[in-house]
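Supplementary Methods S3. Complex input for the histidyl-adenosine monophosphate-bound model.
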Amino acid sequence: MAKRIQAIRGMHDILPDQTPTWQHLEETVRSVLERYGYREIRTPILEMTELFKRSIGEVTDIVEKEMYTFEDRNGDSLTLRPEGTAGCVRACLEHGLIHNQAQRLWYRGPMFRHERPQKGRYRQFHQIGVEAFGMAGPDIDLEMILVTARLWRALELEGLELQLNTLGTPEERRSYREELVAYLRRNAARLDEDSRRRMETNPLRVLDSKNPDMAEVIADAPTLMAHLGEASRAHFEALTEGLAEAGVPFVVNPRLVRGLDYYSRTVFEWVTDRLGAQGTVCAGGRYDGLVEQLGGRPTPAVGFALGVERLVALIEEAGPSVEDRTRPQAYMVLMGEAAAQRGLVLAERLRERLPALKLQVNCGGGSFKAQFRKADRSGAVLALVLGEDELANGTVGIKWLRESREQEQVDQARLADRLGEILGEAR
Ligand code: HAM
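Predicted complex, serialized as structure tokens:
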């Protein structure tokens, strides 16, 4: 046998047993977002490398070491998107979607980061992202968080904690940066190599270090709060007041800086302790400077992204598995070639008459016994039997697979009506 080729490390197949949970999550999110007036946008998975360098920031883990970047046949440097915000902004600019108008958008799909794979952290993973453009006030920040809180309710997820921080404006960060760099220099001996380098190039990134040896030095670092101006302070206060009024509990975490450089003012993460080290299931914030950085007019913006794999893991952990809606209600057992052909035609007629019917037809022949075994495994409650006798007298046998009830013989012409009655009963 030829040697098998395996999937790429950190990139996973999502198998038919798992897709019902994915679909349940995707459909729930989509219906909640529709209720708030968010519209879907779809952008390419590949973008020019420059887009991510300019938006996420040159001195970030993502751009420095995690991007899947390659030259295509024309010599252009392309990158598999590590996140969705940059592409969304690019598309909006390219199509004039945010020129003098507000937009509420969402997207979903695979993202790619060459991280060290572990539980909850993959090299291909999926996000559902939400972005709002053209709204500068704390009201839209509040709406974003209310959307996420409603999502958890709709998904029946409990125990998630909202962490909140503000990163101020670029000017406020510059003033904070001086104090932070002075502190880091004084503590240079306690920093790891990465942080010593970043202390000079992008000191806020040091606060985002995941190295446990750095936890203490980060905990003692000065915070940005003291450097906030009046407007940033008022923005943050209005948001926290709004959350309190809406009854959404939160924790202010002054160390929350996020791994991407485009944020300003509000940042937030929803975290759980049920998933081990990778406990952030949703993260985002305001990024008022990004549109301009990518060549647009100054446009306030805010957004977040859900980590789909992590939410799926939480849903699976929380309770009994989501119903598999592809499970047939009825399985058609067919004996002989003539019945096989007749059966497929009959099945089409049934699907036509009963639009909600889920019917699987046995294909590929097999003995009665083998076909009934397949019927049983399919999860169907009924077997519809078409053998030689039925063909000869124009009937179909209805057999109950999950309860002891006598088989019925029904005229083929009456089968749809009878099935409708039975399944209506079952519902
Ligand atoms: P992010 O924090 O890099 O933000 O990613 C958002 C979420 O995606 C994370 O909280 C996590 O749940 C999930 N995630 C990230 N990396 C991985 C991975 N390697 N494996 C599994 N899940 C992962 C962003 O990407 C921003 N674009 C969010 C945003 C939208 N901010 C404003 N608008």
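The chain has a mean pLDDT of 95. The pocket of histidyl-adenosine monophosphate is lined by residues 83-85, 113, 115, 120-122, 125, 127, 129, 131, 259-260, 280-285, 287, 303-305, 307, 309-310 (CB under 6 Å).
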